[in-house]
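Input sequence (482 aa), recorded before submission:
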Amino acid sequence: MKNFILSAALISTALADPRQPEFYLREEIPMPEGEVLELGGIAIMPGKKVAVSSRRGDIWVCEGAYAKDLSEVKWTLYARGLHEPLGMFYRDGSLFVTQRPEITKLTDTDGDGRADNFETVTHHWGIDGDYHEYNFGSDPDKNGDVWVVHCLTGSGGASQKSPWRGWCYRYNLDGTATPTCPGIRSPGGIGFNQAGDAFYTDNQGLWNGSSALKWLKPGGFMGNPTGNKYVDLVEGMEKPPNPKSDSRMVIEHDKDKRIIPPAIILPHGKVGQSPTAVFYDSTNGKFGPFKGQVLVGEQTHSQVQRVYLEKVKGLYQGAVWKYLEDFRSGIVPARMGDDATLFVGGTNRGWGARGGKNFTFERVRWTGKTPFEMHEMHAKPDGFTITFTEPINAASAKDMKSYNCEAWTYIYKSGYGSPEVDKVTPKIDSVTVAPDRKSINLKVSGRVRGHVHHFKLEGLKSAKGDSLWHPDVYYTLNEIPE
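Predicted structure, C-alpha cell format:
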C-alpha cells in the first residue's frame, strides 16, 4: 500500500483571463510524488474521497481534495495495470472503469484500500492495437446503461479491422449490449444533459468540418460513415445513411432525418479545438448562475466552455460561450463533486495543450460573486432572445453599435476538416429590451439554417456599467422556430 502526504504548491502564472479569479477560484491539487498521473477519469467516492484514473493505467484515491487547506492531501494507490481508462464512476461499493478492452468492475473486498477483485462487465467491442482506439464511457443512465463511444482505428480511419469502431453502444451492467448510433469519428468525452439525453464531443477531421457537441439520439447517425460496415454484424439492422461528400450537414439531414446535425458546433480555433468532457451543472446554483447548463472540457486550449441547449422541431441546438480557463494542462476528464467543487484532470501527452504542465489535477469553486454574462440564448421565429445574469443598461442595449454579427457553416465532406464557408452577415433590424431589463429580443434578418451565428456584444453594459465577462456567443441554428 502506498500513502503519500504532500505539500500544496500553487504555481503562479500569468493569467489569460485576469477577471476569472473574481468569480471562480482555480487551485492545483498536489499529486503523488514521482508518479505520472495523466488523468482520464474522475469518480466521487463516499467520505469525500475522489478517485482518479491515469491514462497509464493506474487508479489512485485522493483524500483531502475538498479541504480548504491542501497542504496534507493524501493519496492511496487503488489499482494498477489497466489499459488507458477513459471513464469511471462509483456505484454500490465498486469502481466501474471503461478501458481499452472492456468495462471493468473493481472492488476492494478486504477493506485495505486497494482493489483485489476485478470483474469484466463486457468486452463486446474489438481492438487492433492501434493508438487511436480510445473508448470513452459515461456514468449509468436512468436505465443503468453505460454509453460508450468507440474511436475509429487510426485518426484517418483508413483501416477498420476491429468491430464497432466508430459506433456508440449502450452496455448494461448485466453485460447486455445495444447498438445505438453509428457515425462517430474521434470522441473526446461523453455525458448527459439535465434531461438525461446523451451527448458526446467529436473532434474536427473526416466528415467533421469543425469539432462539435453531438446529441446521441438512439438510431441517429452522427455523420462519419467509416464504421458503417459493422451494421452487417447485427442481423436485420437497417443500413446507416451514406451521405454525399462536399455537401452541407443540414442538406443531408433534410434528405435523411436519421442524420443528426451537431447540437453545438465549436468553431475551430475560436472556441477551442479539441473538446472533451461533457457534464452539466447539477449544483442548483451553488456553482454560479448557470444551473442545469452543459459544460464541455477543452484539451488543447485548457478550458471549460458553457453551453445552453434547446430543442427546436425535434433537434437540439443552442449557444456556446467561453467560461473557465487558465488550467495548467489540457482537460480530459471533469466531474462536479460534492459542495459544488468542480474537479478537472489534465494531460498533454500526444495532444499538446496550453498551461505548461504535462499533467494536473485541479479544482474550481465559485467565489459567490455573479459575473455579468449572457445567461441563455433562444432562437425565435424572427431572431433571438438573449437573457442576462443581471439587469442591463437599456441605452447601451438599444445602440446598434453595441453589436456585431456574422454567420458561416462548414463543408460536410470525407476530407479532413473544413474552412468557414457560405459566409453571410445577418442584419439586426431592431432591439427590444424587456421591462425587467434582464433580456433583449433581437429581430434579425438573413439568418441561415445550419449556420453558426456569432454575435459580439462588446458595447453592451450592465445597469452598474460593467462590460460582459464574455461578449462572444456562437449559436448553431439547425432549425428556425415557426
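Checked by second reader. The chain has two domains: 3-8+25-366, 374-477.
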